Amino acid sequence: MLFRILAAFLAVLSSGAALAQSTTARPPITGISHIAIYTSDPVGADHYYRDIVGAARLPDPERMKGVDYCLSPTQFIEVLRLPPGMGINRLDHIAFNTADANGMRTYLATSGWKTPQSVIREFDGTIWFEVLDPEGNTVEFVQPGGSLKRSVNAPNAIGRHIVQLGILVHSREAEDKFYKDLLGFKPHLFGGMKEGRLEWVSQQVPDGYDRLEYMLSAGTGTGIPADMTQSQLGVLDHFSIGEASVLDAYKVLNAGNRLTGRHDPAPKIGRDGKYQFNMYDPDGVRLELMDFDATNNPCCSTVTAEDSPE
């Protein structure tokens, strides 16, 4: 009898310790850090991101052969040379800024998520680590370099705030277990190009205004569908730069003879009620210029989280 009482007491202590671990505080996730993409045309990509987008080219602290095209000290597009055997995929990873990268790693680890044993510390003071989401997408959490933050001189940047990242997703439910349930992302907007069809789901970071957009694909499983083209995938795996006025940004691009390559004929109001203008890099990765504020009501759902005030 004494043994059973002692065993029960130890079980309670054990469950209490497990509960304490599972309720480790999640550090703030404040916004988007970057998107990392591959290019098969480094010269063409350099022209696109420097001369058309207007970003500042800086060395990549993560990968010696990569290049960071920076819009601000904490947001950039990381461009990597396309390795052999990648097929049509041009997305390496997406990344979010956090106030405490090591704290985030600990939070995920104690919540049962597979994490690396330690964070990586770069020469510029940046701290980061990466994990896989439920569908195998690589996600980085980045703590910017503080007082060592790099200086960014990009006077011709067409915008300075990456407000949204979009990725190919098969299962909203599976991805929600990570982004919504574990990380605390908040529902923002959902809809599709036709009424009654769910084709995209926008989730807002828990401690800021930036968003992750699930670009839903027909079919089950994970990975890139066998019948998908590189052009189609480039539309789905995308990023959005916020604008006070897409119409004005379009005029700047047009007047500066910067509208080379593939792009929309002109700005238009999207299904979310905002003006947008799509441009594509040499490998077909879509950059969506998007108004911060809506002009019309959204097509399909109520906006349930506040848009960026910029």
Could you write a compact summary of the structure shown?
The protein has helices spanning 2-22, 42-52, 101-110, 172-182, 230-236, 246-255; strands spanning 29-39, 56-59, 67-72, 75-81, 91-98, 120-121, 127-132, 138-143, 162-169, 186-191, 200-204, 211-216, 238-243, 268-269, 275-280, 286-291. By secondary structure, it is of the alpha+beta class.
Helicity level: 10-25%
Mean pLDDT: 88
Strand content: 25-35%
Can you count the helices?
6
Q: Quickly name the level 1 CATH class of the largest domain.
A: Alpha Beta
Strand order of the largest sheet: 2-3-4-1-5-8-7-6
Question: What summary fits the major beta sheet?
Answer: 8 strands, mixed
Radius of gyration: 21 Å
Describe the global form: globular
CATH homology group of the largest domain: 2,3-Dihydroxybiphenyl 1,2-Dioxygenase, domain 1
Helix and strand sequence: HEHEEEEHEEEEHEEEHEHEEE
CATH architecture of the largest domain, please?
Answer: Roll
Number of domains: 2
CATH topology of the largest domain: 2,3-Dihydroxybiphenyl 1,2-Dioxygenase, domain 1
Poorly predicted ranges = 1-22
Tally of DSSP β-strands? 16
The secondary structure category is alpha+beta
N→C terminal distance: 67 Å
